[in-house]
Amino acid sequence: MGLVTSIAGTFLPWLKSGSTTRDSYQVLSLRDLAGLDGVAGGVVTSIWVGLTPLAMIAAALYVVRFPRIAACVALLFGTISGTVALVATVQGDSKGALVGISISGPITTLAGAVLTIVGAITVLTSTRRSAVRTPGGNP
To answer: Where are the transmembrane segments (predicted)?
Structure first.
């Protein structure tokens, strides 16, 4: 559930300018204005756009019964998306400003990242139980 919530949050408003709101992907398209052109901008864009396939890989690994590998991928996903969302959330909602951060996208992404990390840690720390039959006794 955390993966879906986090990805959904990336499509919610992250930036508002006047009466216009932009999601995180539209904000990335403004990277030239922020001076992130070149290699740095390409790396940031590639990592952020790669979050959705990373979430799908984690879910697919879990479905095909590789839960620990899926949890490691989910931890990577949660760390990246959570860090970016936390930074945006800390910057806060600038009420009344002409240009500012819209809080709904970062908060939703952060909540999903926290759920993802908690779930991944739970999977990694759980022990696998197996029934062992002893001759003439109870399992």
So the answer is: 41-64, 71-91, 97-124
Residue-wise pLDDT for 23-67, tens only, equals 888 888 776 666 656 666 678 788 888 999 999 999 999 999 999
Question: Which three-class secondary structure string do you get for the chain?
Answer: CHHHHHHHHHCCEEEEECCEEEEHHHHHCCCCCCCCCCHHHHHHHHHHHCHHHHHHHHHHHHHCCCHHHHHHHHHHHHHHHHHHHHHHHHHCECCCCCEEECCHHHHHHHHHHHHHHHHHHHHHHCCCCCCCCCCCCCC
Going from N- to C-terminal start, the domains of the chain cover 2-125
Integer Cα distance of 16 and 34 in angstroms = 15
User: Residue 111 has which token pair?
Assistant: 């909540």
CA 47 to chain centre: 11
Q: Rounded to 5 degrees, what angle do the CA atoms 78, 103, 88 make?
A: 55
Cβ-contact 123, 73 below 8 angstroms: no
pTM of the model: 0.81
